[in-house]
Write a structure and sequence with these properties.
Layout lengths: L5 E2 L8 H8 L11 E8 L3 E9 L10 H5 L2 E3 L2 E5 L5 E4 L1 H14 L7 H14 L11 E10 L11 E11 L9 E5 L17 H6 L1 H9 L4 E5 L7 E4 L3 E6 L4 E2 L11 H12 L4 E2 L5 H10 L2 E8 L3 E10 L2 E4 L7 H13 L10 E3 L2
Parallel strand pairs: 1-3, 9-10, 9-16, 13-14
Antiparallel strand pairs: 2-3, 2-8, 4-7, 5-6, 5-7, 6-18, 7-8, 10-11, 12-13, 12-15, 15-16, 16-17
Helix pairs in contact: 3-4
């Protein structure tokens, strides 16, 4: 589907010297690019008024539906500067598919895959100067959509705004030795039939209290269990989780509708299989996990996601003690991380053509 984006250059572009200085050590989520992309939807006109213009606040009616009924979804993806100097996106079609899955779950309009990818590519072309150089660095893209119709009443809105903003991102900082996780014994993130598999703000808001508890306990992240038995490992507040067994097998919770279908998660399953690892996507009992770690059957653990890439986990703090993992140096975790980074930056083989150059 063809879509034309009107481009209105910002009159307040950050000075080149200042931008370059900022990109020498980019801090995720603190600085934003000069422009934003917006596109509107209503039931009569469909998608229309696509434009790239100066990044600016939205002007919203106090009765804006998203503020009252939480019809809001988003994606997280990155644009990379490859080793050959090209600008590239990683699996944009997969992000479009997940975006539409989130839209369906929240009764919001879907966007044709071609339109979504075209929007992201057009925006990145405008902001190419903001992509930081260097392995581990990228331009983090945040496509999102929210209900913009002004009304009070429990029904799907009839008007929406789709937008894209971006922030330069460096290599995520990880605690020396790896992340410390706190097991959530009371709080739950999602239940069967809910919105756990959708990338909507409400899922993240539901984990903020537990995340604050993790911070008080000296931990970096919260690890959620299932909502029914409080027994089965699910995911962290913002990332998926993997475990590496002593025979090189990877374990990760299955997609049963309560956890997010991470693009990084899916990519790692494919990459690990190609490297000769067996991947087990079956429920993992936390009691069995603890036993496996103690007897040495379970060797490594890592969190993964677009922003985090792969972050090794050093330990999981539970009410019964700590589950400790071995050092991550020269590990399966590190090998998978480097393999994925090689694809991001056009260094490694890319048989699935995940990297999409947009120059």
């Amino acid at each position: 589907m063809q879509v034309e984006f009107a481009v209105e250059a910002s009159s307040a572009v950050l000075a080149e010297a200042e931008r370059k200085q900022l990109l020498t050590d980019p801090v995720f989520g603190r600085a934003f690019t000069d422009h934003m992309l917006t596109m509107h939807y209503d039931e009569e006109l469909g998608w229309h008024d696509a434009r790239i213009a100066a990044r600016a606040p939205f002007v919203l009616d106090p009765a804006c539906a998203a503020l009252h009924y939480a019809q809001e979804i988003f994606e997280g993806m990155k644009a990379y500067r490859t080793r050959a100097g090209l600008t590239a996106l990683f699996r944009p079609e997969a992000h479009a598919t997940r975006f539409n899955g989130s839209a369906r779950r929240l009764a919001m309009p879907e966007m044709p895959t071609e339109m979504f990818v075209a929007a992201v590519a057009a925006f990145v072309r405008t902001e190419q100067a903001w992509i930081p150089d260097g392995r581990g660095n990228a331009l983090y893209l945040r496509p999102f959509m929210f209900a913009s119709e002004a009304f009070v009443g429990v029904r799907p809105a009839r008007k929406y705004i789709f937008a894209i903003i971006a922030t330069p991102a460096g290599t995520p900082a990880v605690r020396a030795g790896g992340l410390r996780l706190l097991l959530a014994h009371e709080s739950v993130r999602a239940a069967r039939g809910g919105t756990g598999a959708a990338k909507c703000g409400g899922n993240y808001a539901a984990g903020l209290l537990a995340q604050a508890e993790a911070a008080k306990a000296g931990c970096d992240q919260i690890l959620f269990l299932d909502a029914i038995e409080h027994r089965w490992i699910e995911e962290l507040a913002s990332t998926n989780i993997f475990f590496v067994m002593d025979d090189g097998t990877l374990r990760t919770p299955p997609l049963t509708g309560t956890i997010l279908a991470g693009i990084t998660r899916d990519s790692l399953i494919t990459l690990a299989t190609r490297l000769g690892h067996r991947v087990n996507q079956e429920p993992y009992d936390v009691a069995q996990l603890s036993l496996d770690a103690k007897n040495g059957t379970l060797r490594e653990c890592f969190a993964c996601g677009t922003a985090a890439v792969l972050s090794p986990v050093a330990e999981i703090k539970t009410s019964g003690g700590e589950i400790v993992f071995q050092s991550q140096s020269s590990s399966v975790t590190q090998g998978l991380r480097e393999g994925l980074l090689d694809i991001y930056y056009g260094k490694g083989a890319d048989p699935d053509q995940w990297l999409n150059a947009i120059d």
